[in-house]
Design brief:
mainly alpha, 20 helices, 0% strand, globular
Length: 477
């Protein structure tokens, strides 16, 4: 079931009631059954792949744990075998046809037949969770879990299964062991996140989606103004879609006794691309790549040029992780170059005895520059092909000085006016939230103010919400 459906909201209500009515010792079984049921409702075949990854992670960790010597060759081989199996399942399901198409394009003929496999929703997320678990068992930071059911729940837990956050095993499993009584503030906090996440998804993201799709479907025939507006709109569509999912996931999980990692922290208020990726956007994925790819490659403990190469490798792999298309590789490469360039600029400033301007005008400039650097990369993220991405950039660039006049004309469209107003509401809330949580502000207000805010959000969900069950963007990754 999709989070943005009334059936899911009904399912969640029943599950929360059943969860707190059940004894602690049986709650994990209830959550596991709910998680597999939820996943099977997408496609039953997906469950087989989920079980395969779970079995590899469970058996592999136990095999690694049986070898006592931390630096044992046998222990390392068992880790490598298990990780290769998990990533092999990911590769075959997600990247086999991409590789076959690339080989055929190089050869200029159909030398290899496509497999035409349906990419399992959420596979990239739970495969990475499994890999992190195996590596942490190998490093001795975590004991292999002997309880198969609880380990399966860690992999399959439905709030995070389809699009993260990419949770670590230790904090998740430890929370399963802690008895939990019904806590009204905890459930209220979860409901607040679900409400805000739904607002971002069905009111903002799903209203922006048709405008973005119309321009990017055939960029050669769309006007430059529409392409530029669609690019700006996509930046907010993607953010509201993905952060909306994360909010609903974290809120749902909180109501069920598990606190998940924060995945977004107002990313479009970043003052540098480095801050954007390391501290604000898809935080759990950035932390995963840091801990399990960047640091093993040597991180920043090597020469400057090798550190730059490590950053580029991480972002290129991150691009491929997002999708089997060369557009994602270019997107990752551009972000990697931004990181390298930003690091070099920081060192230059340090050598000249200068520090970045932290006054409000300087911060605003940093936010605007960072946003537009990221905006260029979103063109490649959204475009169907490299050719389409280049067409968007070239047509917008060629329009030049006529763009302001064309954009003003487009702003007379009521549909455009509505989404611009919604984006302004989002940005105002984000700006205040960056200083102090909006829910903390709201909780300090009288009860009639709180409920007025809740009813206002509910009214916008019902009146402006696009409840057409549009899939979340990151579910395809």
């Amino acid at each position: 079931m999709l989070f943005n459906s009334f059936s899911f909201l009904g399912f969640l209500a029943v599950l929360v009631i059943a969860f707190y009515a059940s004894p602690h010792r049986s709650r994990w079984m209830l959550l596991l059954a709910a998680s597999f049921l939820n996943y099977a409702l997408f496609r039953v075949e997906y469950v087989l792949l989920l079980l395969a990854v779970t079995l590899v992670g469970y058996i592999g960790a136990l095999a690694i744990g049986r070898v006592d010597e931390a630096r044992s060759t046998t222990r390392r081989r068992r880790l490598m075998f298990s990780v290769v199996l998990v990533l092999g399942l990911l590769f075959v399901n997600k990247y086999a046809d991409f590789t076959i198409d690339s080989v055929n394009a190089i050869l200029g003929r159909t030398a290899l037949p496509r497999l035409d496999l349906a990419v399992a929703a959420g596979l990239s997320f739970y495969a990475f969770s499994c890999v992190s678990y195996l590596v942490n068992v190998f490093r001795g930071r975590l004991e292999a879990v002997g309880h198969f059911g609880k380990f399966a729940l860690y992999i399959a837990f439905f709030p995070k299964l389809l699009a993260g956050p990419i949770e670590r095993a230790r904090p998740f499993l430890s929370q399963l062991e802690s008895p939990l009584r019904f806590d009204a503030p905890r459930v209220t906090g979860g409901l607040q996140l679900v409400l805000w996440g739904l607002f971002k998804k069905v009111v903002i993201a799903d209203r922006l989606a048709p405008l973005v799709d119309a321009a990017y479907r055939s960029p050669a025939f769309a006007s430059p103004a529409d392409l530029l507006l669609a690019t700006y709109f996509f930046a907010f569509q993607l953010y509201c879609d993905f952060s909306g999912y994360s909010d609903i996931a974290i809120g749902t999980s909180r109501m069920l006794g598990v606190d998940l990692l924060e995945n977004f922290r107002r990313p479009y208020l970043s003052t540098s691309v480095r801050e954007f990726w390391s501290e604000r956007w898809h935080i759990s994925l950035s932390a995963w790549f840091r801990d399990y790819l960047y640091i093993p490659l040597g991180g920043s403990r090597v020469s400057v040029w090798r550190a730059h190469l490590n950053v580029l490798i991480v972002f290129l792999v991150s691009g491929l992780w997002h999708g089997a298309n060369w557009t994602f590789v270019v997107w990752g490469g551009l972000n990697g170059l931004y990181q390298v360039g930003g690091g070099a600029l920081s060192r230059l400033r340090g050598g000249m005895g200068r520090r970045p301007h932290k006054a409000r005008p300087g911060r605003l400039v940093g936010i605007l520059v960072t946003f537009h650097l990221v905006l260029v990369t979103w063109v490649f993220f959204r475009a169907s092909s490299l050719g389409d991405a280049i067409t968007v950039i070239s047509r917008v660039g060629a329009a030049g000085g006529s763009l302001p006049r064309l954009l003003v004309a487009r702003l007379y469209d009521p549909a455009v006016q509505l989404v611009v107003a919604l984006i302004c509401i989002l940005l105002i809330v984000e700006a205040f939230d960056d200083l102090q949580s909006m829910w903390a502000r709201l909780d300090a207000r009288p009860i009639y103010v709180r409920w007025a805010a809740y009813y206002a959000l509910l009214a916008m969900l019902l009146v402006l919400g696009n409840w057409n069950l549009t899939q979340f963007v990151y579910m395809q990754f």
